[in-house]
Amino acid sequence: MSGDPVPVGTAPRWGVSSLDWCSHAVDEDADHPYGVYVARCGQRLFMGTSLYDEAPGWMCLLCLRWAGQPRPEREGGGAE
Ligand SMILES: [Zn+2]
To answer: What is the residue range of 26's domain?
Structure first.
């Protein structure tokens, strides 16, 4: 109803790309082309890539943004 394209609470999983060795955010439930995961930043990871709940290494900054952890809007009732 809020019009947010990314549902809050759907945490991505993280896979390390063999191209840049950064951890990219992957939505497992999303539609992916055959054989690859498409990370939120557009980077493609081989389907055999291990996915983790927490990024095992340096996170891709673009994915980090898209992962939406720090949302620009306050979620109401912020202490600060
Ligand atoms: Zn990425």
So the answer is: 13-67
